[in-house]
């Protein structure tokens, strides 16, 4: 319901230009695409940082096992 009201109120076309590329689309679609892009970037960044942390912890555990420490 709220999404429908948002879409109805933001149907105006806007033009977005990036470098040599230019596109016209509704403001509601632009906001949705930017939100989705931010979500995907945040998800990948979180996954990458979690992977690095786990990889570091595994390396530390392996180092401790090889040196005989617990």
Describe how the helices and strands are arranged:
Blueprint: H1 2-9, E1 13-18, E2 21-26, H2 27-67
Antiparallel strand pairs: 1-2
**What gyration radius follows from the Cα positions, in whole Å?**
23 Å
What is the global morphology?
A: elongated
Q: Taking all residues together, what is the mean pLDDT?
A: 89
Structural class: alpha+beta
Low-confidence sequence ranges: none
DSSP strand count: 2
Order of SSEs: HEEH
How much strand? Answer: 15-25%
Biggest sheet details: 2 strands, antiparallel
Oligomer: single chain
**Head-to-tail CA distance between termini:** 57 Å
- Count the DSSP helices: 2
What share of the residues lie within helices?
A: over 70%
User: Taking strands numbered 1, 2, ... along the chain, how are they ordered across the largest sheet?
Assistant: 1-2
Kindly describe this structure.
The mean pLDDT is 89. A hairpin with a 2-residue loop joins strand 1 and strand 2 (21-26). The protein is elongated. The chain contains 2 helices and 2 strands. The protein is 70% helix and 17% strand.
